[in-house]
Amino acid sequence: MIILYIPFSRDEAGDLPSGVALWKTNHRISSQERLKVIYHQDDYSPDLVSPESKVYIVAHGYEEKPTVVANCAEASKAIFLDMETVTKRFEYDLLVIAPCIATVHTYFCGSQKNNYERASTFQTQWLRSEQAPIYYYAGNLAAPDRNGFFWAQSDSEYVPLTRCCHTLTSTSIDEEEAPKRDNIKMEKVSAMSAHRHEKKRENFFTQAKKNRQDLIALYRNIDESTPPVSCSL
């Protein structure tokens, strides 16, 4: 299964949805593999996520801003996130499916040097980095074509993406560090779980209030549209 993860909420996704839509369209033409799109703060069913999933973190990379990624190709309209924030959102949004993640692809445009720095920061911050390799790329990236092939523009020519792909291997944790990391991981997981639970609770009551207001408005409209019944004695 392929997961396209957008580290921006749907209302702050900029021009990323258009690229994701093209990716989905071409993927449906060329592959039977399941594909799912997850934005920051999305609610989704973890039961629908397959084991051994490949996750692509999709955002814009700017060559002159090597420590951040953006939601828009036009800098004047873009919202920028540093990689620490991207990692925090990734962990929060994908916490419930973390055991299903086999590989992570930091899918940003940029030079090998800049994207190495971005991927390395992600690896350092991600508490499950020992579980999965992280791939990063060099060049200008795009959605796969209608035949399912990935291409990158490098040195003014288009080349197969495999020629621009680089790997950060899974990190190894020494015996002394492992217990400390496990404790941090458990604390972080507990905090994120509590936050997600509280967020769902808030959403439930917000929706219930909206439903109640809609129902009141509906009855009010019905009352106003019903002619009075005359009664004579």
Description:
One of its GO terms (cellular component) is ribosome. Keywords: Ribonucleoprotein, Ribosomal protein. It comes from Legionella feeleii. The protein contains four helices and twelve strands, in the order E-H-E-E-E-E-E-H-E-H-E-E-E-E-E-H. The protein is α/β, with parallel strands linked by helices. It has two domains: 167 residues, no CATH class; 35 residues. A six-stranded mixed β-sheet has the order 2-1-3-7-8-12, with helices on both faces. Helix 2 packs across helix 3. The protein is globular, with a radius of gyration of 23 Å. The model has no long low-confidence stretch (mean pLDDT 85).
Overview features:
six-stranded mixed beta sheet, 2 domains, ribonucleoprotein, 233 residues, ribosomal protein, alpha/beta, three-stranded antiparallel beta sheet, RNA binding protein (Contains ribosomal protein S1 domain), 23% strand, 39% helix
Please state how the strands of the largest beta sheet are arranged side by side: 2-1-3-7-8-12
Distance between the termini: 75 Å
Order of helices and strands: EHEEEEEHEHEEEEEH
**Number of DSSP strand runs:** 12
User: Nearest-angstrom radius of gyration?
Assistant: 23 Å
**What overall geometry do the principal axes of the alpha carbons give?**
globular
Mean pLDDT: 85
Name the structural class.
alpha/beta
Helix content: 25-40%
Unreliable spans: none
Quaternary class:
single chain
- Count of domain modules: 2
* Continuous helix count: 4
Query: How would you characterize the largest beta sheet?
Result: 6 strands, mixed
Instruction: Name the beta content range.
Output: 15-25%
